[in-house]
Amino acid sequence: MSTWDIDRAATALLEAEDSRTDRVPITDEWPDLDLATAYAVQDETLRRRLDRGEKLTGIKLGLTSRAKQQRMNVTSPLTAWLTDAMVLPVGDPVPQEKLIHPRAEPEIVFVMRDRLAGPGVTAATALAAVGSVHAGIEVIDSRYRDFKFTLPDVVADNASSGFFVTGPVGRPPSELDLALEACLVEVDGQVVDSATGAAVQGHPAEALALAANDLGRRGLAIEPGWVVLTGGMTDAVFVPPGAKVAAHFTNLGSVFLSGG
Ligand code: OOG
Ligand code: MG
User: Fold this and answer.
1) Quick one: which of 6, 33, 184, 247 has the most CB atoms within 10 Å?
2) Cβ(245)–Cβ(151) under 8 Å?
3) Which of 199, 131, 218, 228 lies closest to 171 in space, CA to CA?
4) Mean pLDDT over all residues of the chain?
5) How far is Cα 55 from Cα 5, in angstroms, rounded to an integer?
6) Which InterPro entries match (predicted)?
């Protein structure tokens, strides 16, 4: 009999986050943790974040590109929650004092104009609900040692959520061909990676549709005003203190991040 349950897993993960202490995967100790229960753990961690005053402001997708799936050795996309405490204002350094081993990844970000409720959402109907498209950098920070986890582990851990920066340029989706929107990632002035929006499920709107349909199965919807991070386009890069990361997009502008 496992002594693990949803409450205990949520406590363990939030304690690791708050104390900046990495830990072994939950599934090492709770091998029966299945995907549905892992989402229940994720929802419990959200409930506790809201209890301490945070506001639910959106949703993130993870592992939507092959680059991310190959690196993390997990081949299924997932969703997780965003709160106002995860917003990193443009120009602020990475808050190293709150993070274990931050990595940065470029993402295409949607700000929703309309409510989007699955099932049956397609990329086209999803895109029609978007108000503006932005460049973004997500700062991920797994609570698991060396970012080693299985799909249920990373789902329970709110998909390694840390912070995210949203670029100041917002464009209407109808002006952009997001499959062809390119991004160059620079670390300390050197280009280290590149991708186009097609890396994300063929088109970032497919990722948005996937999130809406996933939430729909759980009786939830994507709400107007929510931010949606569609998932890292490239592999993530480490951001130690002193590092300078930039993501340059074709039409969405550039986002800069300093490791502090
Ligand atoms: C999981 C989080 C994945 C993304 O954009 O793929 C994610 C991880 O890589 O630790 O945020
Ligand atoms: Mg991400």
Assistant:
1) 247
2) no
3) 131
4) 97
5) 25
6) Fumarylacetoacetase_C_sf (IPR036663), Hydratase-Decarb/MhpD_sf (IPR050772)
Backbone angles phi, psi at 49, to 5 degrees: -65, -40
Those residues whose C-beta lies under 8 Å from the C-beta of residue 190, and which sit 6 or more positions away, are none
Percent of the chain with pLDDT over 70: 100
State pTM to two decimals: 0.98
pLDDT in tens, 187-218: 999 999 999 999 999 999 999 999 999 999 99
Could you report the predicted ipTM of this complex, rounded to two decimals?
Answer: 0.99
Q: Report whether pLDDT(2) > 80.
A: no
For residue 231, how far is its CA from the centre of ligand 2 (angstroms)?
A: 4
Would you list the domain boundaries of the chain?
A: 6-258
**59 CB under 6 A from ligand 1?**
no
Fold designation for 6-258: Fumarylacetoacetate hydrolase; domain 2 (3.90.850)
Which ligand sits closest to the CA of 164? 2
**237: Cβ below 6 Å to ligand 1?**
no
Q: CB of 139 closer than 6 A to ligand 1?
A: no
Task: Give the amino acid at 123.
Answer: A
CA of 29 to the centre of ligand 2 (A): 26
Amino acid code (one letter) for 164: F
